[in-house]
Design brief:
Structural class of chain A: mainly alpha
Shape of chain C: globular
Shape of chain A: flat
Strand content of chain C: 15-25%
Strand content of chain A: under 5%
Order of helices and strands of chain A: HH
Order of helices and strands of chain C: EEEHEHEHEEH
CATH superfamily of chain C: Glutaredoxin
Distance between the termini of chain C: 29 Å
Oligomer: heterotrimer
Radius of gyration of chain A: 16 Å
CATH topology of chain C: Glutaredoxin
Largest interface: A-B, 53 and 85 residues
Distance between the termini of chain A: 35 Å
CATH class of chain C: Alpha Beta
Helix content of chain C: 25-40%
Number of strands of chain A: 0
Radius of gyration of chain C: 14 Å
Largest sheet of chain A: none
Largest sheet of chain C: 7 strands, mixed
Chains: A mainly alpha (67), B mainly beta (840), C alpha/beta (149)
CATH architecture of chain C: 3-Layer(aba) Sandwich
Helix content of chain A: 40-55%
């Protein structure tokens, strides 16, 4: 079950058709997956000390796709 | 070819004169950021019982530095420190059993409610539901209300440092990191490895990670609670002195895919798994067990009598956790906003399923401003072994007579209790809703400021699907944060673009100024910004002295405590200070500086030889002396300085600057020790307060002169308290300081310095205006201040060019050479200053 | 390490229909006999910010010797490019119109992408991305192409 939707994402990759120069919007800072890492670490630390669930904060990819 | 004024050129000219860049770039490769955060709980509902315990509050600072060691090599390190204190639930019990009780200190003064964990005189009905006895009529009434029993803790500080090294290929990356976290009773170390693979012209990224964490608990069971906790379930976990030891090991792995959907949207899915083994219980929490003998005779009101006893909680020694996460980011073209939606499903083998949904709307407002409202909803099930309290159908103890007529006492059988049980609200069923707002301002020079606030509410009623814990466990809280981020490479980019112009910071004036000096220079032109971070460590240790003489314990006992006698004397005192210097020049002749600071202090004491007999620990003075056997710590935000600096004299390579400003009393000066042994210990020792509590005027005049590779400087500075006493009833003494230094630049980037300092500080004025216990010389206002001479040795390195130009770091060690103290004090051992500054 | 395929080395450089900022047409075949450095960039690309000072430096150092740089802008909104250029002025030709078609002709796979074209109009070197450590290699390649007849 867990990995099922994972594979769906991989199929989605076939539908995507964005050229490297069309990534201007994706490169905007507020489109970033880790915009405020310091604030996030404070918030997640606070949630983590009050709640039983933990983890699941994943980062990587997206953005400008620059080399 | 003739250049006609085309539309493009007109736009270009307009752009050159335009406001700072509105499209700003995502995180730079090289940056430094600092953040201060404060969290505070609201008061818990104790159903009519007043608690003088303050709710939990946490003050924290964090710093993060990212550097590029080479083209493809990244280095990052983080430091976090938080200090927390306040009331926390120890256990849960029926309200009828009166777990939170107020003590009467005198006919008029009620102190804070103290936790009572045991009660051998409780009543339940035949279905084992709690009963409350009406004090007037004697009748028993049903009362199913539950309540948390609260206990409070003195301030505790946690420190964590970690680093990460990464390598970037064209379409992949690899990161390795490690770190450690330390606090009084808990140490944790971790290592991790992670990476990323890009596919599909970087439209698809595969992220993977693995980590290992080992955490060791070494905690003493709560001092006051220990005598009342049943030892039948201690096993080998808890020793005779009440020390709980345990180790926990976590192995975790994660896998995720980030996929660009179209020009304005992307999606990310991830799965992670953690396996934890070892000790996972909370040593400061107990579970109340109600013992009722079902065979007893029912009372006249239908009541059964029972006993409530406290047991440390028991949790499984293994936990497997799964998390599935889905994130979606969509650009909203009409508003140029970004919508982030996040869903996480959590599942573990303790029976907890949790859902988290959150949404952020990041809205740029132009001119570098941006505002982000956010909403989050969280809901979890209770753990399989969660109980507010247990009912055990057996007598707590029974008395029988054996054949000879001797009394035989049989206690309950602990093996009849469940294997695992906890009343920790974190494992109960509930929902939580939070909403927050963050405001960010990006300045063109590569400086970003951010402030955020979030309100959080935890309620059983909010649980998805209902069936959450009762509203006695509800609480709310708020979190605020303020942060600053500096792009370390901004200056180098700006300079290389304008490469025709001279490096305006090549031979930085003041390259050799020692790290311990403040207020020494002004910013040269309007619009200049300088950011600095300063760390200072200072400690006092050794033999207590009076004036300049080391004296015997007997002398301290008889003379150190005024008309009374001393019981203890300080053994060691240390202080860590983190300061941010934020300087901005609105005009060419004026520089403004803001200096917030965060500090933590520690003190240990020792019993004096020939000290008088201690009073009983049942008295508050006796309890205070017992408490002094533990290290005392305080931590949190300190006073905030606000200054204006002017250059008054300038010729050739010499200048004189004047600084005028005040220190605002944002640091606590009324910190108290926690109640212990049911005694109110009152204020902590004067020297452990985090701030002066008064507005203080702080002028300074500084001379600096550069003569080729040599430079010299001198400064006079002072601190004048503008109030005669703060809200706790006292004021620190005024300070006068004179210092002079010389430095030599060995190369264009390295300099060393030598310095002399004379400091004169007055004793304290006034005294605490409420309960405090004088057990040693540090509790007397005359034992503060003195005349001090130090010698300092420093080294400084600046980056004149390269991608990190404009950065400077320096260190200085101040060695005390003469301590002439007022009253009876520990001599100083030294102070270390380390500073980093970055001028834009 | 570039395993991404763009317009291949050894092929003739495609011609593009481009207009410069001063509204004059830009044709790559006009640069026959000169070494042409075609750089595809956009304002939102962080590596591009870092590459501009280097490209300016190349213009000063090798412009007289026959190096010509054309920065083909691929911003979807021309205003973004203008604001960028206001803060990071270029001393080389910037072409803004017709960029997207040109990028397709060159089969650009990454941002930024640069193509070094020799005096005969043949693509000799391609680079994906820009890193400070690659500058020496780029200079050496330019010197080599400039020395050829």
């Amino acid at each position: 079950m867990r990995f099922l939707y994972f594979f769906c994402l991989i199929f989605l990759s076939a539908c995507s058709n964005v050229s490297p120069w069309e990534r201007g919007t994706l490169a905007k800072p507020h489109m970033s997956l880790e915009l405020s890492p310091l604030q996030n670490s404070l918030r997640f630390h606070q949630y983590g000390s009050r709640e039983a669930a933990s983890g699941g904060v994943e980062v990587g990819g997206g953005g400008c796709g620059c080399y | 070819m003739a250049v006609t004024k085309s539309k493009s050129l007109q736009l270009l000219t307009a752009a050159a004169l335009a406001l700072p860049l509105t499209t700003v770039f995502a995180s730079s490769d090289e940056e430094a950021s600092f953040q201060y955060g404060h969290y505070e709980d609201g008061t818990r509902n104790l159903f009519g019982v007043k608690s003088a315990f303050k709710p939990i509050q946490v003050d924290s600072i964090q710093s993060n530095v990212k550097l590029k060691l080479a083209d493809r090599v990244r280095l990052a390190f983080n430091y976090t420190q938080d200090t927390w204190s306040g009331a926390t639930p120890v256990t849960t019990a029926p309200l009828a059993f009166a777990g939170n009780r107020q003590r009467l200190l005198s006919p008029k003064i009620l102190s804070g409610a103290s936790p009572y964990l045991n009660n051998s005189n409780v009543f339940v009905d035949k279905n084992f539901n709690p009963l409350q006895q009406d004090t007037k009529t004697g009748k028993f009434l049903s009362n199913n209300q539950l309540v948390h029993t609260l206990s409070t803790a003195s301030p505790e500080t946690r420190k964590q440092g970690d680093f990460r090294v990464g390598y970037d290929w064209d379409e992949a990356s690899l990161d390795v990191g490690a770190g450690t976290s330390a606090e009084n009773d808990y140490n944790s170390s971790f290592g991790n490895i992670s990476g990323r693979f890009d596919f599909n012209k970087k439209l698809t990224s595969l992220n993977w990670g693995a980590s290992y964490t080992q955490s060791d608990t070494e905690a003493y069971l709560d001092h006051d609670a220990f005598p009342y906790i049943e030892r039948t379930t201690f096993g080998s976990r808890v020793d005779k002195a009440g020390l709980v030891t345990g180790t926990k090991k976590d192995w975790a792995g994660s896998l995720g895919i980030t996929q660009v959907l179209n020009k304005s949207a992307l999606i990310e899915g991830a799965v992670s798994y953690t396996n934890s083994t070892g000790y996972m219980a909370n040593p400061y929490k107990t579970t109340a067990v109600l013992f009722v003998d079902p065979t007893q005779k029912i009372g006249s009101n239908g009541q059964l009598s029972g006993s409530m006893l406290a047991f440390i909680e028991q949790r499984p020694e293994e936990r497997n956790q799964w998390t599935e996460n889905l994130r979606f980011v969509q650009h909203i073209d009409t508003f140029d906003a970004a919508l982030h939606l996040d869903y996480r499903f959590y599942h573990d083998d303790w029976g907890i399923n949790a859902h988290t949904i959150s949404g952020d709307w990041i809205q740029p407002l132009g001119d570098g401003w941006s505002i982000t409202p956010r909403v989050r909803y969280y809901s979890q099930d209770a753990a399989d072994f969660y109980v507010p309290y247990l009912v055990s159908k057996q007598a707590a103890s029974t008395i029988t007579f054996d054949e000879d007529g001797n009394i035989k006492r049989t206690s309950y059988n602990p093996r009849l209790l469940p294997q695992n049980y906890s009343s920790d609200y974190r494992l109960s069923g509930y929902g939580a809703l939070s909403g927050g707002l963050t405001v960010t301002k990006q300045f063109a020079k590569g400086l970003e400021l951010q402030a955020g606030a979030e309100y959080y509410t935890h309620a059983g009623d909010l649980k998805l699907g209902g069936g959450g814990e009762g509203n006695y466990a509800d609480f709310d809280g708020y979190l605020v944060n303020a942060s600053l981020k500096v792009d370390l490479a901004a200056l180098s980019v700006a300079n290389s673009v304008h490469s025709e112009h001279a490096h305006h910071h090549s031979h930085h004036h003041g390259a050799g100024v020692p790290a311990g000096i403040m207020f020494d220079h002004v910013l040269p032109k309007a619009g200049d910004v300088m950011i600095g971070y300063r760390y200072m460590y200072a400690n006092q240790a050794g033999a207590t002295q009076n004036g300049t003489n080391v004296i015997s314990d007997a002398m301290i006992v008889h003379n150190g405590c005024g008309a009374k006698q001393c019981f203890v004397t300080p053994n060691e005192m240390s202080m860590n200070m983190h300061m941010l210097d934020l300087m901005y020049a609105p005009t060419d002749w004026l520089t403004l500086m803001l200096m917030p600071q965060f500090m933590d202090m520690h003190m240990t004491m020792r019993e004096l030889d020939n000290a008088p007999t201690r009073p009983s620990p049942l008295t508050s003075l006796g309890a205070a002396i017992v408490h002094s056997e533990h290290e005392h710590t305080t931590g949190g935000i300190g006073d905030t300085g606000m200054y204006a600096l002017f250059n008054v004299v300038k010729f050739e390579n010499q200048q004189i600057n004047i600084s005028l400003g005040v220190s605002a009393p944002s640091g606590d000066s009324d910190i108290q020790l926690r109640d212990t042994h049911r005694q109110d210990l009152g204020f902590i020792h004067y020297g452990m307060q985090l701030g002066s509590g008064t507005w203080d005027f702080k002028p300074a005049i500084t001379y600096t002169g550069d003569f080729g590779d040599f430079s010299i400087g001198a400064q006079l500075n002072g601190t004048k308290r503008l109030e005669s006493k703060n809200k706790a009833g006292f004021a620190f003494g005024d300070i006068f300081q004179a210092t002079g230094w010389g430095s030599y630049s060995w190369t264009n980037w390295l300099a060393t310095s030598v310095r002399g300092v004379y400091t004169l500080q007055g004793a304290l004025n006034g005294s605490y205006n409420s309960v405090y216990h004088q057990i040693g010389p540090m509790d007397y206002v005359n034992s503060y201040g003195g005349r001090f001479v130090d010698v300092g040795f420093g080294v400084a390195a600046s980056m004149p060019d390269g991608s990190l130009q404009g950065n400077r770091i320096s260190f200085e060690w101040l060695q005390p050479v003469h301590d002439d103290v007022n009253g009876y004090q520990l001599p100083r051992e030294g102070a270390l200053s380390a500073t980093w500054t970055y001028m834009f | 390490m570039a395993s991404v395929e763009a317009s291949s080395v050894g092929e003739n450089a495609p011609d593009c229909v481009l207009t410069s900022l001063t509204n004059t047409p830009v044709h790559f075949h006009e640069y026959q006999g000169k070494v042409l450095y075609v750089d595809f960039w956009a304002s939102w690309c962080t590596s591009c910010v870092q590459s501009f000072p280097f490209l300016n430096q190349l213009t000063h150092e090798f412009g007289e010797q026959g190096l010509h740089i054309v920065g083909v802008n691929l911003d979807e909104k021309i205003d973004d490019a203008m604001v960028f250029l206001g803060h990071h002025p270029s001393h080389f030709t910037i072409a803004n119109h017709g960029g997207e078609q040109c990028a397709k002709s060159f089969d650009v796979q990454a941002m930024p992408s640069s193509f070094l074209i020799d005096k005969k109009g043949v693509i000799r070197y391609t680079h994906q991305g820009f890193r400070a450590g690659e500058t020496e290699e780029l200079k050496a390649q330019i010197v080599q192409l400039l020395s050829e007849k």
